[in-house]
Amino acid sequence: MPERTNMPEVRLEPWSETDLDLLRRINAPEMTEHLGGPETEERLLERHRRYVDGSGRGTGRMFGIVLLPELRKVGSIGYWERDWREEVVYETGWGVLPEFQGRGIAVAAALAVAGEAGAEHRHRYLHAFPRVGNLPSNAVCRRAGFVLVAECDFEYPPGNLVRCNDWRRDLTGTDLPGPGPAGPA
Fold first, then answer.
1. What 8-state DSSP symbol labels residue 118?
2. Contact, 35 vs 44, CB < 8 A?
3. pLDDT band at 155 (very low <50, low <70, confident <90, very high)
4. Residue 34: pLDDT band by 50, 70, 90 thresholds?
5. At 136, phi and psi to the nearest 5?
6. How far apart are CA 58 and CA 123, in angstroms?
7. CA pseudo-torsion sign 118, 130, 49, 88
8. Which domains are assigned to the chain?
């Protein structure tokens, strides 16, 4: 069961044109250490365009994480389809700006994104694949009610095989957040 004590309030806002500066801040070396390092400006602009163009429902969505009641965008989170172990599942990933880390914001956002993905009723599972050595992201998965399936080899970025944990959350459960501060925007 997800830990909900002292959970900060967040709202997920669909990714928009105005989120490019947030993406640039998330692209910092300290934020991309477990992801293969910062991307070039060209790749970042391509990513931003994909996020904006994919902001509708269907195969996935990206969001800015808004901390309440401050109404400050403090990170990003999303979900998207991926083929995994002969099944189509959702994958999720997040980034919270350094000055806001350690407050449970990523956990609250992971719960909210599970609610968003679950509301689509397309796939049963939401997976996260943090590197084995990424202790904070593994803790987010555990606190947000994901179950550790196994260690696995995972390719990210493309062409780079890394050792990750495969965390899975069942989207058909009754413990997903409903509308409200941590639920759908």
1. H
2. no
3. confident
4. low
5. -60, -45
6. 11
7. negative
8. 9-170 (3.40.630.30)
